């Protein structure tokens, strides 16, 4: 078994190395701008919303600065693969990349390769940023990142199917305010009795499963992740992991296949199989409207906060992506200029309107006319008030990899809940992942 695991790891390393060469070798080495134009190479999931902002930046700076996007689409690269591609380029001190975005929980890890921004971002610029988004941009007392957008976990549900399960209008009002987990599971068991798939969540071995697990822990104790050392053998993690296991086995409210699902697979299977609910991120509907054929079905999908534990408030994990500037870039000034451009109020509105990305510039939320036209932003602002951050650790990715691997095995039924939690604790400490 150990040899098999090692061979898979070696194979993955080789694949990532090859992909890195294919992706980043397409980018010209810096310093060759013979036409006098400074070209800034920017790696991200380049959605139509991103491209719209890039086009405006390039038009504004025509003849002086040009942004060259390096596309790492979520449909082709998992978040873990994207992280490794970026890390590989930076470890090599490559000048092929100037600016890129990271999942906000990676800021600590990438800080070793990136430029501190304290002297490049004014106090006025910082004061305009949502505090929850700005919190993820610091490491070791230094400003290391600039937020592009913030995410918050939430529940999507098919309103037509939910109304068939619970016709009482008062039920949907409670759902939109946040059901208790007990009531949510009871509805799920009724759906199972009808043969309907009910709840899709992300239980593959990756960061998405860690988020689902952490939300159930923080829902019982919202201070859990602020204490050190983090102890996964406490009652809260045991109950949280037990619930994820029960969803796919005891309750049967989730299909067993969730053990292989990331967000895209969860959304697609929920739609294709007429599932009732899915745990997701804010731009699910905006993204699917670009290509999903059954627009009538998308119109039936509504948003709600995640369920909560009796006696506790609803909580959701923060996500989002932040800009970081490579320490090895020869175009740092222009790279920061691009990040600041994305933070402009008008560009934040484009990101939201075209891509569904939640703004991090507070001025968007203080525009009464705009908020009236987009009431969903007020809804998101309420969800953000119930958000929590994953632990900001230099070795967070090691911790998350250990947690997701053990949790995935437990949901699959390969190991017991107690064994999974014990493995988390012992492997995290052995790997020094609490740093």
Please outline what is shown here.
The chain has helices spanning 2-24, 48-60, 79-91, 107-110, 123-127, 131-134, 159-165, 169-177, 181-193, 207-218, 235-248, 263-272, 284-288, 295-299, 332-342, 345-355, 362-365, 368-373, 375-384, 396-412, 417-430, and strands at residues 38-44, 65-71, 99-103, 138-139, 142-143, 146-152, 154-158, 199-200, 277-280, 301-304, 316-325, 387-388.
Question: How would you characterize the overall build of this protein?
Answer:
With 435 residues, the protein is of the alpha/beta class. It contains 21 helices and 12 strands. The protein has helices spanning 2-24, 48-60, 79-91, 107-110, 123-127, 131-134, 159-165, 169-177, 181-193, 207-218, 235-248, 263-272, 284-288, 295-299, 332-342, 345-355, 362-365, 368-373, 375-384, 396-412, 417-430; strands spanning 38-44, 65-71, 99-103, 138-139, 142-143, 146-152, 154-158, 199-200, 277-280, 301-304, 316-325, 387-388. Strands 1, 2, 3, 6, 11 and 12 form a 6-stranded mixed sheet that branches. Strands 8-9-7-10 form a 4-stranded mixed sheet. Helix 2 links the parallel strand 1 and strand 2. Helix 2 packs antiparallel against helix 16, helix 10 (207-218) packs across helix 11 (235-248) and helix 11 (235-248) packs across helix 20 (396-412). The longest helix is centred in the N-terminal third of the chain and has 23 residues, at 2-24. Residues 1-22 and 26-31 have low confidence and may be disordered.
